[in-house]
Amino acid sequence: MEFDLKLVENGKFFNILNKWKIDPNVEQLPYYDGKSKRIVILRKNPISNYFIESLDDIHHDGVPSEKDKDRGHLIAQSFKEFLLTTDELSRFKNEVNIFFGRQNKANITPQSPASNRNSKDLTGQAKFELQISDYLKKSSDGKVYFEIEELTIDNIGLGRRIYIHWFNDEKCDNHIFIPDKR
Fold first, then answer.
1. What does residue 66 show for φ and ψ, rounded to 5 degrees?
2. Phi, psi (5° rounding) for residue 177?
3. If 0-12 CB within 10 Å is exposed, 13-18 middle and 19+ buried, where does residue 144 land?
4. Rounded CA separation 148/72 (Å)
5. Cα(15)–Cα(149) distance, rounded to whole angstroms?
6. Are residues 74 and 54 in contact, defined by beta-carbon separation less than 8 angstroms?
7. pLDDT band at 64 (very low <50, low <70, confident <90, very high)
8. What is the pTM of this model?
9. Which of its termini does the chain have fewer beta carbons within 10 Å around, N or C?
């Protein structure tokens, strides 16, 4: 798919201008497409059994450290409280730790620190993860559609496409591309 992009000078990332639709099927279960695309609904009050099956998606043969790269999570560890009930977090504590850990290839790909973290000059994936977490923590019954995809050519990571739909009229959707190299 081709994307129409507009550079955001303050942060050096791109807004994607293409119209995008949410996948209504992820209301009941997360969607995984290969090793690079994840779609989930994050909820202030998670529904039982929504993310349990995903905890089995573990490729724990290790993610080797790469020079000048972070182990970038596709689904942030800070999202676990919005995917699993309090009871599930307790009951499946070990599985949760393994899934969101630093060695699970099913949830981690190498990512440049500039595209993963935030800095004074560059906006990283962390900025958008923090916006979602802050919103859900402050809401009484918030819900957020989160889609993330690692875009590659010949197994070389170009960056991540993120689409965020806020089930709230006050916030505008975010559809962005954060290049790995800037």
1. -115, 140
2. -125, 125
3. buried
4. 12
5. 15
6. no
7. low
8. 0.94
9. N
